[in-house]
Here is the input.
Amino acid sequence: MSTVHVSNHPLLLHKLAILRNKATDPKRFRELIREISILLAYEATADLALAETAITTPLMPMQGKQLKEMIGLVPVLRAGLGMVEGIWEMMPAAEVWHIGLYRDHATLEPIKYYSKLPVAPTVDVCLILDPMLATGGTAVAAADLLKKWGARKIKYIGLIAAPEGIAKLQAAHPDVPIHVAAIDDRLTGADDPFPPGYILPGLGDAGDRQFGTG
Here is the structure.
């Protein structure tokens, strides 16, 4: 099964609490997603391959390190857009490819509406960026699409996951590591006073809260 990494970094947990708060406005919400994404990506990329490179300091020549693998950022539209900027600042050479998926509110199944990947993979590692791993449908669909494209190394980076979403992604793609800031209790169901398929306690709809459309 895929490995699940839950960060316990104090800065990240502090920011996550502010992010969850319903009083946090869209501007601050976007800033926090950017900041949390940087911290998560820092941890998720700890095993990237390195190559030796010759450099010269102001004092003498030496052997340094440089990234050996090309990175691709794959935000799931639209909520994943807010995670790109911070990670891109850390890895400015990374390519960015967008996948458009939305969840049908009646069936909770993912529906693809946009994908524009090149003919063949141009990167070595793909990072799926999607804030909420709820039912797991969009994460599975994104990984399906990337593997069909030819991607060999894929990681999922999100903010909050539900146990149901983790189980679904692990079952479909046991080779995809999952990096999140928190695992919450469960998904809403028919007996809850909220629409089904939301993470509890969660933070609401990450897309709506980013773009002020809730």
